[in-house]
Fold this sequence. Notes:
The chain is mainly alpha-helical and 121 residues long. The protein has one domain (2-119). The protein has five helices and no strands. The chain is globular. The mean pLDDT is 92.
Amino acid sequence: MKNVLLVFLGGGFGSVLRYIIGKYLNNAEAGIPYGTFVANILGSLLIGIILGYAAKNSSISQSQTLLLATGFCGGFTTFSTFAYENHVFLKSGDFTSFAVYTIASFVIGFLAVFAGMYLVK
Length: 121
């Protein structure tokens, strides 16, 4: 039960922060939903740092990993919003924004995870 509460708390904080970032950075006129993009890239970097640091030494407990990686990063990043935003691009025929947003999210997201793990190496 403690583990469930840790994930719940971390996820709540991550979701609220994602909402705030999206509120200020997502702009329908700009095309690309920068708020979601920033949250997903930062979340990828953070999970790389957290899990890389946890793998490197034993100073992060399983409870802290659940709170930070599973909870916070899981609530902060959002694949469902990413998928919906891409649906909107495709439905409106904006294939350029679809391609740029999708490719950039995957490539930079993966690079952010690797960068996070490298930073704690």
